[in-house]
Amino acid sequence: MRRYRIQNKIVLPFILLFTVVVLVVPLITIMLFDRKYDEQFSLETQEWLKVIVSTTYIHDPQKVKEAYGAEVMIVGVDNTINSSTLEGDWSTFSAEMKFPEARERIEASNGEFVLQNVKVGGRLYKVIYYPQKARRLYCLMRPMAKIADAKRQATLWMLGIAPVVILLVALISHLIGKNLADPIKELVQFTRRVAEGNLKGQCKVKTHDEIGDLTIAFNQMTRDLRNSRNELIQAERLATAGKMAASFAHEIRNPLSSMRMLAQMLMRKKELPESRRAQSMRYILEEIERIDVMVKGWMDFARPAALDLAPNNLNQALQEVLDLMEANLSHHQILLLKKFDANLPPVPFDRDKLKQAFMNIVLNATDAMPEGGTLELSTMQDSDWVRIDLLDTGVGIPPENLNRLFEPFFTTKPQGTGLGLANAKRVLEQHGGDIQMESVVGKGTTVSLWLPLTTANTILT
Known about the structure:
Helix Hairpins, 12 helices, Beta-Lactamase, alpha+beta, Heat Shock Protein 90
C-alpha cells in the first residue's frame, strides 16, 4: 500500500473541501439567484402586460417599445407574424418563437397567457404569449441580456477568485500540516538514531500537545533503555572478566608447568653440561617472554587506554603499516593490490591504536596464505562512514569458528594468543566503528572495517 505523509493527508482534504466549497457553493448560489430573479422578472413582465392592456397601449406596439423598451410581435391564426417591432427576417423569427408550443400551453391553461424564455436573433427574451380575438397572439418580448450578462459576470468573478482562494487554503493548510508534521518527523529521526544504538541524545520537545507528551515519554523510555543497557554492559563485563580469567589461567598453565619442570631439573641435576643448562635457561626465558606477551595483551584488552583522536589521512596510515610488512608479505609470496580512494576526507582516529589493529588483521591474513596468494586492500567513503575492505585468497575460516574469532583467547594457531582480533574489534568499537568478517573455506576471507567521519559515537575513555 502506498504511503502518504501526514502533511499530505492534512493538506489534500483541505484543498478538496475548499475546492468544492469555492466552486460548487457559488454555482448553486448563482443558480438559485437566477431562478428567483427569473420569477421576479416574470411577475414584473406580467404587471407590464396588465398596464399595457389597461392603457390601450396594446394597440400601439411602437409606444410599448418606446415606453418599456420591450419588443412586440402580433401573430396570426396561421402562426405567421403580422407585425413586429423587431427588425430582421420575420420568417426566421416565427420558427424561433415556437408559436405552436405556446398555443398548446395556452389551451391547456384555459386561455390564460403563458410565459417562456425564447432566443430570437441570438438574443434572449422573456416572452408573454397573450391570446386575442380571432386566435391571434400578442407577444410582449422583454430583453434578458442584462440578466445573462450579470450571470456571466458573476461566473467569471467566481472562476477568477476560486484559484486565489484555493491557493490561499493550500498555503494555510500546508503551514498547519508542517506545524504538525515537523515534530513527528523529528521524533521519527530520533527513534531511528535510537534504533541504531545511539541512546545519548534527547529529542527536543517543541509542542505542548499530544505530540509533545509523546516526545517526553519517548525521552524517558530512551533514558530507561540507556540505564538498562549500561547495567547490561556492566554485567557482560563482569562475565567477560570471569571468562577471560579462566581462559588466561588455562593458557598460562602450560608455560608455567614447563618452567617448573626445567627449574626442578636444573636443581636436581647439578652435573648437567653447561650447554644443556644454557639451553634450559633459554627455554625458561622464552616461556617467561610468552607469559609476558599474554599478560600484556590481556592488560591491553581489559584496560584500554584513552584515545588520542586527531584528523588523519587514513590512506597514509594504512600505507605505513603495509610498508612495515612489505618484507613479510614478499617472503610469503603474497601479491598486494591497493585500491585507495584518493578523495577520502580526513578521518578522526588514534593513529597508533588503529595501525596496531590493522597490523593484527594483516598478520592474520598472511598466516591464512602459507603458500602465497593475493591480498587486496581498498578504502571508500560510504555516506558518513569510511569503509576499509581487506580480501585474502587464503584457506578461509570454517563456519563454526567464524562467530568466535573476536572472543578473547580464541585462536586456531599453535603460537597465537587469541587477543589480536579481540583487540582490533575493541579499538574499532572504541572509535565508534565496527568490524565484520565473511569467509568461504578454500576461497578466502573478507574483513570489513567501518570508521565514522565524526566523533559523535566515539568512546574517548
